[in-house]
Design a protein that fits this description.
Helix content of chain A: 25-40%
Number of domains of chain A: 6
CATH topology of the largest domain in chain A: Phenylalanyl-tRNA Synthetase, Chain B, domain 3
Distance between the termini of chain A: 92 Å
Strand content of chain A: 25-35%
Distance between the termini of chain B: 73 Å
Structural class of chain B: alpha+beta
Number of domains of chain B: 2
Largest sheet of chain B: 8 strands, mixed
Largest interface: A-B, 103 and 98 residues
Number of helices of chain B: 12
Shape of chain B: rod-shaped
CATH topology of the largest domain in chain B: BirA Bifunctional Protein, domain 2
Structural class of chain A: alpha+beta
CATH class of the largest domain in chain A: Alpha Beta
CATH superfamily of the largest domain in chain A: Phenylalanyl-trna Synthetase, Chain B, domain 3
Oligomer: heterodimer
Chain lengths: 800, 376
């Protein structure tokens, strides 16, 4: 919402400075977004008198002018066709910045004649498109005066960011009312007294809605005949231009002016283009309408239209039609002032995607009691600006009635203190509400308040509290620290969130960089990760490659790794902890920790380079699980994983039937679908599947230290290639569950030195005697049991 | 050099000869340039057939008085020679070790083996951890809600009916169909505020929660991303008012930014789910001419950082709470904005690009865990 300072002063009698007005507007909730003072750019230019203009000696189209500034006479060379002696002009002197070009004017010599200034065109001053000649000011323009002040261009334009709850402040009058309530001046009244009609209404209006349809409950019209449409006066054009509206003609400008001035959108029809009477009705659907913006619209059923015998003339509350609009030939004008329903207006505007100043106001809610008054104000403007001795004012034609329900709101005097912490005295509360136009009565220690018709946002006592504290000033609200309810409270985060936090720090400690990527992904890539249900395809994606809710984070990380590779960083180690989506329900969304490594280990003098592999991914998964409190020692590892992993180089970490994580190399065809180069290895950790820790108190189990030294023995088994380490280790452990404390694989060999189809697995077995040290014979006996157990389960032989 | 230490004369015995012997061995020890040479000297002097040993053997043949004196003198000589040998031995051993260590020297300028733990925590996660830590100290706990919400939770229950003009203000992502029996459309939540509704429906006051999380709006330009993060706060009881809201946010802002005198300003505004509503401004200083960094603090200028207000009576009613019995406040802030201001991150869009250089630079080492014992 834009308005000029002078426009505001037409509604507010004030001597407060612009700066203070702006500060108060923001403090009232009418946030000032900007103040532009066009006078600043025009400040250097002065009114001057072109004394005489003589032909330039060396150029046919130039004249050498003598220009009087009131203090001195300057010689100015000018090429404008209208430069002639006796006129008043706008003069720029050397050193002035020309607004249109931003350049500094310099003294010059044009064809051997010195020029000490420039007479400006409207375009050069940024005031319009006219550059056919220099500006000619009226003969009485005071020589030497500031052009900006003389011409009224020293009027700052204030723009406020209007919140949707304040339609009343979509008019300058409403803004002035708020300022008046806040002590910034006195609100002036709008003269809306009736204009005497001299003939009965010639055009009738009927509201033709089904019962209960409140789309247009009130319509006021008036025919005024024999007017003369012409350009609106300069002061009105200036105000309209200042707020970004293009002056068209007096009849149209009046409607635009009153829309901004008193939040009363109006429409004017050329009465001679109306065939028969007017009908305000819901559209049947399918009718077409040529709007004033030059576009053709097809009506949907139920949209409010104003029509005559021939069809749709106007889209109620949104835009008039091209066919019935006023132009310079208009002599009979029909004024429309109506109340259009906010919801209906919003739905229609949204459906047809029409933005207009009228829609903006009707969908927020215009003052339903200003409909008839608005028609009277418009009548006066038309008579003033377009009236002729033959002008005939018709009677108002009124259909329906204003949709006003007065509902008193009870406000406890203490409510303001209880809700804001500010004790505003009863009298002050009453005064604030009254100056805002509320009807306030004292009743049984309460205020009984009726909101003015222009405040559709006021529903209950909380709204009244806001009015009081807003006008009183939010700066009065004290800052009171919250008291913590008790010394020891429950954890601020639950176990599930703690697991996420711990896994996050653990994965970062694994050397992975945490990324945050979109919850969306391209449908084509989602297809590689099991696809998505149709219910997870966005109706209005931001772009075609972010069109589905992600079923997996891996695809986003693979794309991220690719982006990094494209920047020259092929070795990426990334993770993300975030949601993936299975369906639309809250249960269909779960938090997954996902890690991805791409490329190779860094080249380094101390260690060989190797490609990332499934074991890296497994280590990441185990680190996150361990940090999150999963019983990693009890996990089963199975060689199965979803199809987006390498089928032979991937696995699952399970706890019984529950999968805690998948890990492995990414399937080459998935990398290809993401247009990414491998190898890449990743893991997906299902944080919600980690079992909750049993509540065992804070004490750790008692530590029992073995008195005797452990004994280590190494074994190398030759087994079939399909025998897993886990199977072999279990066979070792089963040989003596009491004595064998630990089994670890320290070498795996596949190659020439073992039989084809076989591999060698070397394990170190730790024996922990309990009561007495083991003799060599006892150790040998256990070694034999181990060899036998492993041989039985895996068919292994001891390597010679 | 072992040559010089070789014993030459075995007799006669006099006190003068002991001095000569001492001098001789001292010279030999000093001249010894290896542990082996020193061992030879030790043997030749103190060994079973060494010269001092031999002289000890002759003591028996001496008269008692002389034997006593001679014996004492020999013992002194023996200790002196042994001490000299030990001292020399230490020097030679030290030298030998020093030479060995010198040969073992490495190039310390080489890079160490790469640390496996050089990862980073994303600034958004770090900021959320910081927010949670501060609000936890004020008695808040974390509440959660789904990213895919029904229009009811995201709009209607928050006093935003479908005809509301503010519905147009939030470009909403829609999902097809409806997961709910009521035929309510499903959307990506445009704000964390639906968690307010879920919390108030699930739990009776007193309520004191925050809800950080992902939010979505169909908007993508210099200052908007289709996904971003917000933190919601909600306090409901029987007496919490706007002064508590101001105090809570003032305390939080000062703790989060680590600025003791950071001022806060409330400006009236409009949110459908609060009444009265306020924009939250914090003090700042804008760079002159638009160049340089914005600085937070008590400088007279203001920066908008979030919205807040007293929970609207309609919202309380929608959650089954009587607005005459219960009251409280809600606030919302953008987490990226908080992170950008605190950590000087210039561009919103970079948060979601996963550029390794950016993550390394703006990310946090894993052990940098927000600690209430430390100042913001």
């Amino acid at each position: 919402m834009k308005f000029t300072f002078s426009w505001l002063k037409q509604h507010l009698d004030t001597s407060v400075s612009l700066t203070d007005i702006c500060a108060k507007l923001t403090a009232l909730g009418l946030e000032v977004e900007g103040v532009e003072d066009p006078g600043e750019k025009l400040a250097p230019f002065i009114v001057a008198h072109l004394v005489e203009a003589v032909q330039h000696p060396n150029a046919d189209r130039l004249r050498v002018c003598t220009v009087d500034t009131g203090r001195e006479k300057l010689q100015v060379v000018c090429g404008a066709p209208n430069a002639r002696g006796g006129i008043k002009v706008v003069l720029a002197r050397p050193g002035d910045v020309i607004p249109a070009t931003g350049e500094v004017l310099k003294k010059g010599v044009i064809r051997d004649v010195e020029s000490q200034g420039m007479m400006c065109s409207a375009r050069e001053l940024g005031l319009g498109d006219d550059h056919d000649g220099i500006i000619e000011l009226p003969a009485d323009a005071p020589v030497g005066a500031s052009f900006a002040s003389y011409a009224g261009y020293d009027d700052p334009v204030i723009e406020i960011n209007l919140t949707p709850n304040r339609p009343d402040c979509a008019g300058v009058h409403g803004i002035a009312r708020d300022l008046a309530a806040a002590g910034m001046g006195a609100l002036k009244t709008i003269d809306a007294s009736p204009v005497k009609a001299v003939e009965p209404a010639r055009i009738k209006v009927a509201l033709d809605f089904p019962a209960g349809d409140k789309s247009c409950p009130h319509f006021v019209g008036r025919l005024i005949r024999n007017v003369k449409n012409r350009p609106s006066p300069e002061w009105m054009q200036k105000q309209l231009r200042a707020v970004g509206l293009r002056p068209i003609s007096a009849l149209v400008d009046i409607t635009n002016y009153l829309t901004v001035d008193c939040m009363r959108p109006l429409h004017v029809f050329d009465a001679n283009k109306i065939k028969g009477d007017l009908w305000v009705r819901p559209a049947q659907g399918g009718e077409t309408f040529d709007a004033l913006n030059g576009k053709k619209y097809i009506m949907e059923k139920g949209m409010t239209v104003i029509g005559d015998d021939t069809g749709v003339l106007s889209l109620g509350g949104i835009m008039g039609g091209a066919g019935s609009s006023c132009d310079n030939a208009t002599v009979d004008v029909f004024i429309e002032a109506a109340y259009f329903d906010p919801v209906r207006t919003a739905l229609t505007g949204r459906a047809l995607q029409i933005s207009s100043d009228a829609r903006y106001r009707f969908e927020r809610g215009v003052d339903p009691l200003f409909t008839q008054l608005g028609a009277e104000v418009a009548t006066k403007f038309i008579l003033d600006l377009c009236g002729t001795p033959e002008t005939v004012v018709g009677e108002l034609v009124i259909a329906g009635q204003a949709p006003v329900v007065e509902r008193p709101i009870a406000l406890e005097i203490g409510k303001c203190l209880k809700h804001t912490g500010v004790d505003v005295a009863a009298g002050e509360q009453e005064k604030i509400l009254t100056t805002l136009g509320f009807d306030v009565r004292h009743k049984d220690g309460k205020l009984s308040v009726i909101a003015p018709s222009w405040r559709p946002d006021i529903e209950g006592d909380a709204d009244l509290v806001e009015e009081i504290i807003r006008v009183k000033g939010y700066e009065y609200i004290p800052a009171v620290s919250l008291q913590r309810p008790q010394a020891v409270t429950a954890s601020a985060i639950d176990a599930a969130d703690y697991r996420l936090t711990a896994a996050r720090r653990a994965l970062a400690s694994q050397g992975l960089m945490e990324a945050v990527t979109w919850s969306f992904m391209p449908g084509t890539i989602a297809a590689c990760f099991g696809g998505v249900a149709d219910a997870l395809r966005l109706v209005n994606p931001i772009s075609s490659d972010l069109d589905v809710m992600r079923p997996s984070i891996l695809g986003n990380l693979i794309q991220a790794a690719k982006r990094n590779a494209d920047r020259g960083f092929a070795e990426a180690a990334l993770f993300e902890i975030g949601p993936v989506f299975r369906d639309q329900t809250p249960e269909g969304q779960s938090m997954i920790a996902t890690a991805l490594r791409a490329g190779a280990t860094p080249r380094h003098w101390a260690q060989p380079v190797r490609a990332v592999d499934a074991y890296d991914a497994k280590a990441d998964a185990l680190a996150a699980l361990a940090a999150a409190g999963a019983p990693v020692a009890s996990l089963q590892i199975t060689a199965d994983a979803p199809a987006w992993y390498h089928p032979g180089r991937s696995g699952s970490l399970r706890l019984g039937p529950t999968v805690l994580a998948f890990f492995g190399e990414i399937h080459p065809s998935v990398l290809a679908a993401c247009d990414a180069a491998g190898p890449m290895a990743g893991c997906e950790i299902f944080m919600a599947n980690i079992p909750a820790a049993r509540a065992t108190g804070t004490a750790k189990p008692l530590l029992k230290l073995d008195a005797l030294q452990p004994v280590s023995r190494d074994f190398a088994f030759v087994v079939g290639r399909d025998i897993t380490a886990a199977k072999l280790i279990k066979a070792v452990r089963d040989a003596d569950k009491n004595l064998i404390r630990d089994v670890s694989v320290f070498d795996v060999y596949q190659g020439d030195k073992v039989e084809a189809g076989k591999k060698s697995i070397a394990v170190s077995v730790t024996l922990q005697p309990a009561d007495k040290s083991l003799t060599d014979a006892e150790i040998d006996a256990i070694a034999a049991k181990i060899a036998a157990s492993v041989a039985k389960v895996t068919g292994a032989t001891l390597r010679g | 050099m072992a040559e010089a230490a070789r014993p030459v004369e075995n007799t006669p015995i006099s006190s003068g000869d002991l001095d000569a012997l001492k001098t001789e061995f001292a010279a030999a020890v000093a001249a010894a340039d290896s542990i082996a040479a020193l061992d030879d000297i030790r043997v030749s002097a103190l060994g079973k057939k060494g010269r001092i040993t031999d002289m000890m053997k002759t003591l028996g043949s001496l008269p008692p008085d002389e034997r006593k004196n001679r014996g004492a003198a020999l013992n002194v000589l023996k200790d002196e020679i042994a001490a000299a040998i030990d001292a020399r031995h230490k020097i030679l051993a030290d030298t030998a070790l020093a030479e060995k260590l010198a040969r073992e020297s490495i190039d310390v300028t080489l890079a160490p083996r790469p640390a496996a733990n050089d990862g980073r925590v994303h600034p958004i996660s770090q900021t959320i951890d910081e927010l949670v830590t501060i609000f936890a100290s004020m008695g808040f706990s974390v509440a959660k809600g789904p990213d895919i919400e029904s229009e009811y939770y995201n709009f209607e229950a928050l006093n935003l009916p479908s005809s509301h003009p503010a519905r147009d203000m939030q470009a909403t992502f829609f999902l097809p169909g409806s997961a709910q029996a009521g035929g309510d459309k499903m959307v990506l939540r445009t704000q964390t505020s639906p968690v307010q509704i879920r919390t108030m429906k699930a739990q009776k006051p007193p309520i004191r929660i925050i809800a950080p999380g992902r939010t979505y709006r169909c908007d993508y330009d210099m200052t908007h991303t289709p996904m971003f993060h917000q933190i919601e706060g909600l306090v409901i009881d029987q007496s919490t008012h706007m002064g508590h809201l101001k105090g809570c946010l003032l305390d939080f802002m000062r703790a989060f930014f680590g600025i003791d005198d950071l001022p806060i300003r409330f400006r009236p505004s409009y949110f459908p789910f609060t009444e009265p509503s306020a924009e939250i401004d914090i003090g700042c200083k804008r760079p002159k001419g638009g160049k340089g960094e914005l600085k937070l603090g008590n400088y007279g200028d203001w920066l908008e950082i979030g919205g807040c207000g007293m929970v609207h009576p309609n919202v309380l009613r929608n959650c089954g709470l009587d607005p005459d019995a219960y009251q409280g406040f809600a606030f919302g802030m953008g987490i990226e904005r908080m992170a950008m201001l605190k950590y000087g991150i210039p561009d919103l869009r970079t948060f979601f690009d996963a550029d390794l250089r950016w993550l390394k630079h703006y990310g946090f080492v894993p052990l940098d865990i927000p600690n209430p014992a430390l100042k913001g």
